[in-house]
Fold:
Amino acid sequence: MKRVANTDKQGVFLATNVAYYPSIGGTERILQMVAESVAADFERVIVFSQGGGEKPYFINGVEVRRYSKWGLRLFSMCIRPRIYFPNVVHSRSAQENLAFVARFSRRTIVNMVGGYASGFPVQKRIQILKSVQRNADVAVHVDALSTEFLIDKCLAPAIEYRIIPQGLDFDELSQAVTRPPLRAAPYFVHAHNLWHWKRPELFIEGIVAKHPTCRFLMIGSKQAGDRIEQVAALAKHYSNVELLLGHKRPDFLTMLAHAEGVISTSAVEGAQPNIMLECGFMGVPYLTLCPGQNYAHYPHVEVYSSVSQLSARLSELGPFARRAKKEALGRAMRHFRQDRYSWQNVLGQFREMFHLTPRT
Structure:
């Protein structure tokens, strides 16, 4: 379907996501960058988020509101946004919101960054894609080689897809690499917000407990997550893991930059998790259990089908994994320092989709 584009520089940009800055997750990061980059082009830029406060608040020109189904729908009926930008559409309520809000939006662009699980029923995926095809103008994927895109393209070839990679702040990451370490090396990092699908307990029981001589940091948000209390209680039983919640982004990146590797136990991830790209840029190994995506073409990534396999690989690498993977990490750093991953390039492509004039 196609709608008539609005060519003036007014109206409302409306976005939705499960969480928003200052939460440090990957989808939060991409939405923050996109929303702030267009704040000067619209009368209002508004994000509905489940993590929003009791009252609307403003961050860098972006208005953040607490999500409710009827609040979002009433708002879209009254305001009739120029752009509707839902960041994920995997839940039933998100699909229902897409169908409803798109009727009142001039242009709807769905960011398909919500992740794909290998056990996800094909029929449910077809349902999602039918909703996107009926209600959206464009569906954005991040990687033409990802499992998620290849499946979607096969199941729903009629959708207009755009491939736009996740963006990286080259200066920010370079500064993190040169900043002094905040923790004594060597250590490995689990860098996920503590949601159940990130399987943080599996990380503690399947990795931390099996490697008592290795040190581990678990870094995440102190607000976003449904397993925060449980993980905090479990981590107290192990002296080789430190739970670090609510750190500011520069500190988070510095700890990441000096890690021997990132270990992901997530059951569901998008095709380009921000943390995976950041590791590639900074030359940090990324070992993952996520079964639903194809990361094999990234040199710094290793994918395992079981926690026992990942644990055995950690034993092989020893405490100095970066030394063992030096050549592969060099290739990853060259790849992710290409201009196509720069935020300037990425945000320019989003501006084009939103029918905004290029920034000079």
Notes: The radius of gyration is 20 Å. Residues 1-7 have pLDDT under 50 and may be disordered. DSSP finds 14 helices and 14 strands in the chain.
